[in-house]
Amino acid sequence: MNVQTDYDVLIVGGGLVGASLACSLAGAPLRVAVLEAHPLRADEQPSFDARTVALSYGSRKIFAAMGLWAAIEAEGVEPIRRIHVSDRGHLGVTRLDSREQGVEALGYVAESRVLGKALSAALAGADNVDLHCPAALDALEFRPDHVRVRFTRDGESDEITARLVVAADGGHSTVRRLTGIKAWEVGYGQTAVIANVITERAHEQVAYERFTDTGPMALLPTRAPAGAEGRCSALVWTVRDAQCEEVMGLDDAAFLTRLGERFGRRVGAFEQVSRRHAYPLTLLRVREHVRARLAIIGNAAHTLHPVAGQGFNLGLRDVAVLAQVLVDGVAAGRDAGELELLREYLRWRRRDQLQTAAFTDGLVRLFSTNLTPVAALRNAGLVAIDLLPPAKRLLGRQAMGLWGHLPRLARGLPL
């Protein structure tokens, strides 16, 4: 006989992915809790800072189906109407246009804090969601019919039970460490330098992806401070690890000059740069996505190179599928932590996770070599995609997260 538990679902990690899962389950016939090491407020949660997130059109549909898009849009997002892909030193170009795809925008750029504010407000009004934060996870004890979870809060130990634990606690997952679940991980030998830049010319809601010999560079249109309307972009500049210290050590004027030399003049000169951040880049995939009473999602399960901006979108698709599997399973009288139910989630998500990882990894490796035959082949590919509408449409659907077997939320339908 199953024991009564405190919760049906305990989400460890209250960042963007964990909070999104909690919001997706708000109002469902499930008792849900979030365990997070930081206060779950947009002004204190590290995941909800001023960095930007590229949202695919499919992610917009998920947030809209969860009832959150209006609040996100009201706080400020910048649409991506067009995407321009080029290879530095070569002529090949591919251009994607939202009008050709039949959508309002290919994607959107939002500050993490904007998403965090909308998620925090939604969770504050969710009667079936409890927040245990700030709290540090100490131990997990898996039993046949529940999981016993021990944590520390305000210097005191506490304990709760749940039918299912969902790890949404990022690439350095505590849940993975406590359960002994291994991950396959390889470094790219590259570091992403992140900042916001003001450009001479308006971005006109175009996102640029420019491949160079040290890695891809991206400029994403974002909301601008007063006086720079339409000229602010989020920069992701990939450099080799050995170059990172030098690039980060440049003063602003030298940094902007170097950036202009690498990127070119498509948006004119680079005039201002914000504080810079650097993040080493790795490809990670967990060896076990599910066990009885455990599911691993988001960056805890997979991290990608930021080329094509797919990382958070992939995690949000995890959320949409897991939420549907849980709600439908419980409605059919099944246990939320039942292994076979969780395997249904994994079977649904495996193809998207593998293909998205292979696509981003393949782009990085293909465009990181200067071998003449490879360069000629990839540039011919860029030109071919630009000239062939079916190929362009397929690439656009993948970039927007609108391909494959979509869950209800990703189709804009409520759970």
Provide a descriptive summary of the structure in words:
- This protein has a domain at 7-75 and 111-185 and 282-376 and 404-411: FAD/NAD(P)-binding domain, CATH 3.50.50.60.
- It is 35% helix and 31% strand.
- It contains twelve helices and 20 strands.
- The strands form three sheets. Strands 5, 6, 12, 13, 14, 15, 16, 17 and 20 form a nine-stranded mixed beta sheet that branches. Strands 1, 2, 8, 9, 10, 11, 18 and 19 form an eight-stranded mixed beta sheet that branches. Strands 3-7-4 form a three-stranded antiparallel beta sheet.
- It is globular and about 65 Å long.
- The two termini are 29 Å apart.
- The mean pLDDT is 91.
Keywords:
eight-stranded mixed beta sheet, 415 residues, single chain, alpha+beta, 12 helices, nine-stranded mixed beta sheet, 20 strands, FAD/NAD(P)-binding domain
Brief summary of the model shown:
By secondary structure, the chain is of the alpha+beta class. 35% of the residues lie in helices and 31% in strands.
Number of strands: 20
CATH class of the domain at 7-75 and 111-185 and 282-376 and 404-411: Alpha Beta
Percent range for β-strand residues: 25-35%
Rg, Cα atoms, Å: 22 Å
CATH superfamily of the domain at 7-75 and 111-185 and 282-376 and 404-411: FAD/NAD(P)-binding domain
Mean pLDDT: 91
Proportion of helical residues = 25-40%
Q: What form results from the Cα inertia axes?
A: globular
Please mark out the parts with pLDDT under 50 across 5 or more consecutive residues, or reply none. Answer: none
